[in-house]
Fold this sequence. Notes:
The protein is of the alpha/beta class. The chain has 2 domains: 7-189, 3-Layer(aba) Sandwich (Rossmann fold), CATH 3.40.50; 206-368, 3-Layer(aba) Sandwich (Rossmann fold). The chain is built from 13 helices and 14 strands. The chain has helices spanning 23-35, 81-91, 104-117, 134-138, 141-155, 167-177, 220-228, 247-257, 277-281, 298-305, 337-346, 350-370, 373-381; strands spanning 7-11, 40-46, 62-65, 69-74, 95-99, 123-127, 160-164, 183-185, 206-211, 236-241, 264-270, 286-289, 310-313, 327-330. The strands form 2 sheets. The protein has an 8-stranded mixed sheet, sandwiched between helices. Helix 3 (104-117) links the parallel strand 5 (95-99) and strand 6 (123-127). Helix 2 packs across helix 3 (104-117), helix 7 packs parallel to helix 8 (247-257) and helix 10 (298-305) crosses helix 12 (350-370).
Amino acid sequence: MSKEKKRILITYDYFTPAFKAGGPIQSLTNMVRLLGERYAFYVVTRDVDLDGTQLEVESDQWINFEGKAKVFYASNKNKGFSGISRLLQNVSPDIVYINGLFSLFATVYPLIYNAWHSKTGLKVIIAPRGMFQEGALALKASKKTYYLMVMKPFMKRGNVAWHATDEQEKQDILKNIGKKASISVAGNVPAIIQEGNPVDFTGKELRLVTVALVARKKNHLTFLRVLRNYTGERPIVYDIYGPVKDEDYWRECRQIMNEMPANVTVSYKGAVEPPLVAGILSNYHCFVLPTFGENFGHSIFEAMAAGLPVMISDKTPWQNIDKKGAGWIFDLNVNGDFERALEELITTSSEKLKNKGEKAKRLAKAYLENAGLEERYEEMFGG
């Protein structure tokens, strides 16, 4: 007689086919694909994407997802506390796996349910998804400080544990929750590397790309200001892909985009669905992300996996790319360091860029081989 699978109920505001909320959707989707044979996953999510676009799914019922999970896409009538409570009671999970910190639907209601109605033996695991990073907490800081003060009693209950995706996030959790926090470390699960078109590193113009949410945290503005002040001779093309999350921020970006020198062309290309990203990346010479903080950086990983060198800030887990010859890291706190990295990129020959792209690809492959993802998640969730 086969052993019954452990029941894990996942909460997050967005799940495939939603894609505009970025990395966490990919992390959860890939985790379910990786472990769906071992665990009985139930995903409770909303039936819209980040911008409110209605997903083409059947709402308010359990839908089979690739034979690896059952997904409940909640409409407005089921996204309140009573709806979440009913779903938790019906599934009766062994583990509630909460993703993110600041959502009523995905975080607050499950934690209140846990405090009021939890069954004996229920375990709750919270994955902050980078929201405890210093750069992330600095945005709307007063609201977040008050929120965490109110919610910490619910987050520090005896059956609540934490999921950090790297050692830095573990330290962020300890700093904000306390030294007694129970923390498992398991890296984000990226998409399996797919062979895209080979990158052509030749051409007079330097082609740069960012694929990310258009939000203040991603810090496009810093790069746009660098490009506005560019005085070099080589033409630069910079294309931005990703859904606009913050209209005020995007207005600031557009204003600077209209002030570029004659030999710099900046274009916004819109949101792009994940399966198309690898093909798009092959049209560029380097991936750029001046982010204020990344929990993992799926777009960084995908760029490297596609054979593209990357130029990123020092606020990501990818601290070894310059030492590995896979790109450039610049310090956001050092004036001129971004310009220094861009100048090095501009003067790098096509052959050396290709070599960096190959090293980037090897670095992405090594992450998959060495991360021990399946074992780490099984340690966290148990047998």
